[in-house]
Each structure stands twice: as structure tokens, then as C-alpha cells.
Amino acid sequence: MNYFSTRGGEAVSSAKAIVEGLAPDGGLYTMAAEAIPHMDIDALKELDYYALAAKIVSALLPDFSEAEAHELVKLAYSGKFSSPLLAPVADTGEDMFLELFRGPTSAFKDMALCLLPYLMKESARKCGQDDDILILTATSGDTGKAAMEGFRDVPGIKIIVFYPDSGVSAVQKQQMVSQEGKNVKVCAVIGNFDDAQSGVKRIFESAPQVPGVSLSSANSINIGRLVPQVVYYFSAYFAAVRYGRIKMGEKLNFSVPTGNFGDILAGYIADCMGLPVGRLICASNENNVLTDFINTGVYDRRRDFHKTISPSMDILISSNLERLLYLMSGDSELVASLMSQLKAEGHYQVPAELLEKIQAKFSAYCCDDAQTKESIRAVWDKQHYLCDTHTAVAWKAAQDFGRDKGPCVILSTASPYKFPAAVMEALGLDCAGDEYDMMEKLEQISAVPMPENLRGLKERKVLHNDLLAPEAMPDYVFGKMKEAKW
Ligand SMILES: *Cc1c(COP(=O)(O)O)cnc(C)c1O
């Protein structure tokens, strides 16, 4: 199975797609829908997460044999998760929550970013590229930390993360500036997330040349980040079977808190691989550009940007949607023209048949911050399950979709301890002190253990204090590219 840019052009191998990240025409590398391999789900149901991941990763990335994938998956995940199942499903008796936050940084990005470094290094080797790889990432909070944790001390790879000086929470900042590892650098950028992101894009465009070093990216435009996410749809399905919620072969719905459309797209790929996925419920916060798109076929980013209590979903350009349009239409010319219209005019509308196809699989709902908090409270009061703000948005969408429409797994993408202020407020508790005080208080009250990686965070030594204006980013990166040892 080969990969193609969503906007046309030549086939490339899965390894090349991972090394390059973004296609040269600006499109995203994607497989053709009809080439997606069909899995025999009965043969997968007894496997542990590692063996299951090996089968799925090698099926979707044919440059990797199953044995090779198994090795990499073990290296990527072993000893780093707080559950032996890696991504357990919590069944409260009422709802099922797929806990994707048991990894080293307590957000679901870990599921992909633990494995991506290994896939990238091996892919580079398979492509005969023996340069060192320098990963550049701009982050609004969760991605940067998860990427550094994934790439730390991986030989042959270095990573620089840029975060907006005034745009991340105290917990997120402290998680990043205390990052250990000989190959990581974290740098604050004066400005907001867009300033940091544009700065990184400019560096890629100007492509600074240093012999022996190539640049790459760790954000969700890389197919190597998407593939590892397909696995947990399968493992969650088998968990629902074990819990007696469904029988093998019956459909299962999934409600997914969505930003860049990567997570939910992985669910669609699982569906294409033969997993009996019912409906995929796309849950958004007040930045509801996807809700409108799925309900009307019109994508329109010309709207106010809202800063919400589910910040990892505060996004108006949902890049992986481009992959869905390609998978469902098979028409790269159409995708290229829609994307150029989006860039030039800020909006596009898909043809009626394509909208019909999308609506046959996806439903979409959104809620505001007040409803998010009410949902956290309702889940806690009725089910004694403590969920974070992003998970709460997905729970609310599942309610709006209808509880009578069959069993549904709610994807839980972050630990509630990453957003203690909003969670405390939702529960009607006193929010005195800083975020660290609130984390401790939340633990006392809820008796839900705080993730070890967040414990003692406040006291952790600050190892990174670089601060730059956006204009200074290229020189900073160029300088770091030339230093053999950091
Ligand atoms: C990134 C993120 C999301 C959104 O995932 P996408 O793949 O971008 O749709 C949801 N919740 C949390 C906590 C995240 O970090």
C-alpha cells in the first residue's frame, strides 16, 4: 500500500511519507480508501495491546513487518503507562470511557508520540537517509510536552519545541521547562500560539541547510502520528465485548473530542479496516467549525476564535479533515481546489454526494464552557467518574446524539489533573491557591490518584529558560543545527 498526497502526485512509500511529514504540494500523505487492508477481527480479539498494535501498524505501514512493528511498539510503550492495558476502558455501568491519558504526559498525544520517534528513525534508515533529524514543533500546550517525552534521548534525533510565552497554563509550562533529555530544547516565544506556529512554518519554508541535519515535524499532519491512533479503536471495541456491552460483530459508536480531526479520522480508518464502527460523533467546543461543516457541508473559518476551558480543541483550521475528504471522494483535484479556496477565501462547500457520505458515518455536536462544566459535574454526581474538560465535551455530544442509539465509547483525552481549575469550578469547589494547590485538593476530594508525572511538578527544576521574539527563531534554530552536542 502506497501513500499519495491528498492533492495529487506520485505514490510514495509509507516510510517516505513519515520522513517527509508534509507532501511537497502542501497536501497530507494518505492511502487510497480502496487500498486500506481489511482485518479479520476475530483473529485480533485476544491479542494484547502490543501485539494488536504490531498487526495494525504493519498493515497500514507496509514498510514495517509485523515483527519489526512489535519491537518498536514495545520500545515505545513499555514501562511508560500507568495501566498495563495502556488504554483501558472504564465502564461506570452507565458510560464507557476510553482512557487515552495514561501515558507519560497525561494527554492522548502520548499514544502517537511515544511511537512516532521510533517509526521516524526506522523510516529514515529504510529510505537511506542517515542525517540527524531535527524536529521542530510549535505547541499550544499538550503536543510539545508529549513530543519531547517521546523523542527524548532517541539517538539521531533532536527536538526543539516553541511555546507561546503567554498562551499555556502554569501546569503545561512547568511540564515543558522541566523536561529532561540531552536532545531536547524548549523555548518560549513572545506572542501567542500563531506567532510560534508561523515562526516554525517560516523556518521550514526558508529550509536552512546544514550538512548532516534534516528538519521534520511531529504534528498530526504526519501519517506516523495517525496510524498508532487506529489501534485503540480496536482495543476499545474488544473491551466493550468483554464487558458484555456488545457482541462480536455488533456496531459500536464512538464520541471523540475533536480539534485537528486526527483522533476521529483514526476511528474512520479503523472502520475502513473492518472494525464494526457505528457512528463517529465529532464533539467540538465553541469553536464549532466542524459541527457546522458536518451538518451543512460548508466549512467556514471566518468566525471568532474562542479561548475555552478545553484549549486543545481551540482550532479553526482542522487539518486532517483534508484526509477525510480525500478518502471519501478519491478526488485529489477536488481536494486541492477546496483547500486553495480555504486558503484564499476562508471557506468552501463540498458537493452534495460527498456531504451525504460524510453524514452517513459522522454526527456532530458542540457545547460551550458552561455546558462542559455541567457535564463534568453530572458525570461525577451520577457516575462518580472524574473527567477532564475535553472528555466532558465528548460526553455531552454523546448525550445529544442519544443514549438510545446503541452503546457508545467516549474517548477521554486528558487527565482531569491537567485542567484542575476548570474541574474544581465545575464541581463547585473552592478554587483558592495556584493550580498545584488545586491538584492536591482535587486528589483529596475525589480519591482519584494524580498521575505520577504531575506529582511534585511544582518543585521540579527549571532546565529551559530561553525566550525569543518570533523574528529571532530562524537564527536560534540555525545555531542549534550547527551545534553537534547540546
Ligand atoms: C489534541 C487534543 C484533542 C484533539 O485531538 P485532534 O486529533 O486534534 O482532533 C482533544 N483533547 C486533547 C486533550 C488533546 O490534547
Written overview of the protein:
The protein is of the alpha/beta class. The protein has a domain at 89-106 and 224-456: Rossmann fold, CATH 3.40.50. The chain has helices spanning 14-20, 49-60, 66-77, 109-113, 116-126, 142-151, 170-177, 193-206, 223-242, 262-272, 289-296, 321-329, 332-345, 352-361, 369-383, 389-401, 420-426, 435-446, 473-482; strands spanning 3-5, 8-12, 29-30, 89-91, 96-99, 132-138, 157-164, 184-189, 213-217, 252-257, 277-284, 298-300, 347-349, 362-366, 408-412, 466-468. Strands 4-5-15-10-11-14 form a six-stranded mixed β-sheet, sandwiched between helices. A five-stranded parallel β-sheet has the order 9-6-7-8-16, with helices on both faces. A three-stranded antiparallel β-sheet has the order 2-1-3. The radius of gyration is 21 Å and the shape is globular. The mean pLDDT is 94. It binds pyridoxal-5'-phosphate (PLP). Pyridoxal-5'-phosphate is lined by residues 107-109, 142, 220, 257-263, 312-313, 390, 413-414.
Identify the CATH class of the domain at 89-106 and 224-456. Answer: Alpha Beta
Number of helices: 19
Largest sheet: 6 strands, mixed
Which secondary-structure class do the elements indicate? alpha/beta
Order of strands in the sheet with the most strands?
Answer: 4-5-15-10-11-14
The distinct ligands, each listed once, are:
pyridoxal-5'-phosphate
What percent strand? 15-25%
Q: Globular, elongated, flat, extended or rod-shaped: what is the shape? A: globular
CATH architecture heading of the domain at 89-106 and 224-456: 3-Layer(aba) Sandwich
Report the uncertain regions. none
- Record field, number of beta strands: 16
* Residues in helix, %: 40-55%
Rg computed from alpha carbons, rounded to a whole number of angstroms: 21 Å
Question: Can you give the mean pLDDT?
Answer: 94
User: In angstroms, what separates the terminal alpha carbons?
Assistant: 39 Å
CATH topology of the domain at 89-106 and 224-456: Rossmann fold
